[in-house]
Write a structure and sequence with these properties.
The structure is a single chain. By secondary structure, the chain is α+β, with helices and mostly antiparallel strands. It contains seven helices and 15 strands. It is globular, with a radius of gyration of 19 Å. The relative contact order is 0.14. Bound molecules: 2,5-anhydro-1,6-di-O-phosphono-D-glucitol (AHG) and manganese (II) ion (MN) (3 copies). One manganese (II) ion (MN) is lined by residues 107, 110, 236, 270. It is found in: Cytoplasm.
Length: 322
């Protein structure tokens, strides 16, 4: 087995021990979620749980199990002041916040509509810091993230981290349970001919997104002068991992059906962490009109229009909005 362990990489990078402990707890939680996802059909954990989360989505048993694993595992960390989860309505305060304490944001299971069909799902997380003693705000812009990451429960379980040293990918060794560095420097190719969007929503889109779609589906005779390929897994983690490995652009725009909610994807625990990872890998992250990492959230479960991926393509989509 090759590649340094997660702890070795974090220690060599000079990360503070409190942050290493928290990241190791997160890695343990992801390992436990991977185990539950893989055993889901055997334990009767597919189908619906019969409950809704705060955003009115039907919860799956594994949405709840993954959330419970994260809460039970990560609350051991003495410097963790608060949690924000997709599956928990209120912010969970664990202690009186002190300057330098950590805030953890997570989507315990992303792409959970793929569970019943045994396709790839993931976990997304983000860590920020309390600014000063007693400061109880979690509504901070994404540029203040200390670490952003995701776990992908695909053919292999991977942990991908942006922790101030570019983007690093670790693979879980089945059996020993050790995460080892397998992708030391993940970068997104600047140019791409591949896009990902739920095109069934075409009739609800605004003009700039319709125009982009028309351009990239027009092929060699169109304004882009080449053929584009399309992919849609309906699992943001899987989509973004593909983009980190070979380039591409991912769009979940504002449309007539999600405008009242502000978009589809949630800013604090889905879009901002992915935006940090994408920028650290050399890509771009915009709503179409604003840089995602500069947005100051107005509420913990806020949704936002999302364009992420290869820099030149993201810039082109932003230009279509001007
Ligand atoms: P979640 O499973 O955490 O609620 O998030 C699902 C998100 C995201 O992963 C994916 O990109 C998108 O929803 C899929 O949307 P469609 O159902 O429109 O395909
Ligand atoms: Mn959900
Ligand atoms: Mn999600
Ligand atoms: Mn989720």
């Amino acid at each position: 087995m090759s590649g340094p362990t997660l702890r070795r990489v974090l220690t060599d990078a000079g990360q503070p021990s409190d942050l290493i402990f928290l990241l190791e707890d997160i890695a343990s939680a992801c390992r436990a979620v991977a185990y539950e996802v893989r055993n889901g059909p055997l334990k009767g954990n597919l189908g619906l749980a019969g409950s809704e989360n705060v955003q009115g989505e039907d919860q799956k048993p594994l949405d709840i199990i993954a959330n419970d694993i994260f809460v039970a595992t990560c609350t051991n960390s003495p410097r963790l002041a608060a949690l924000v989860s997709e599956e928990i309505e209120e912010v969970v305060w664990l202690k009186e916040p002190k300057e330098g304490d950590y805030l953890l944001f997570f989507d315990p299971l992303d792409g959970s509509s793929n569970l019943d069909t045994n396709l790839s799902v993931g976990t997304i997380f983000s860590i920020m810091k309390v600014a000063e003693d007693g400061d109880r705000t979690v509504l901070k812009p994404g540029r203040e993230q200390v670490v952003a990451g995701y776990a992908l429960y695909g053919p292999a379980t991977m942990l991908v981290l942006a922790a101030g040293q570019g983007v690093q990918g670790f693979t879980l060794h089945q059996g020993s349970g050790i995460f080892r560095l397998t992708q030391p420097r993940m970068t997104i190719p600047e140019e791409t001919s591949e896009f990902a969007i739920n095109a069934s929503r075409h009739r609800h889109w605004d003009a700039p997104i319709k125009r982009y779609y028309d351009e990239v589906t027009a092929g060699r005779d169109g304004p882009r002068g080449r053929d584009f390929n399309m992919r849609w897994v309906a699992s943001m983690v899987a989509e973004m991992h593909r983009i980190l490995m070979r380039g591409g652009v991912f769009l979940y725009p504002l449309d007539d059906r999600n405008r009242d909610k502000g978009g589809r994807l949630r800013l604090l625990y889905e879009v901002a962490p992915m935006a940090m990872i994408v920028e650290a890998a050399g890509g771009g992250a915009t709503t179409g009109t604003e840089r995602i990492l500069d947005l100051v959230p107005t509420e913990p479960h806020q949704r936002i229009a999302t364009v992420l991926g290869s820099k030149s393509e993201v810039d082109h989509i932003a230009a279509l909005h001007r």
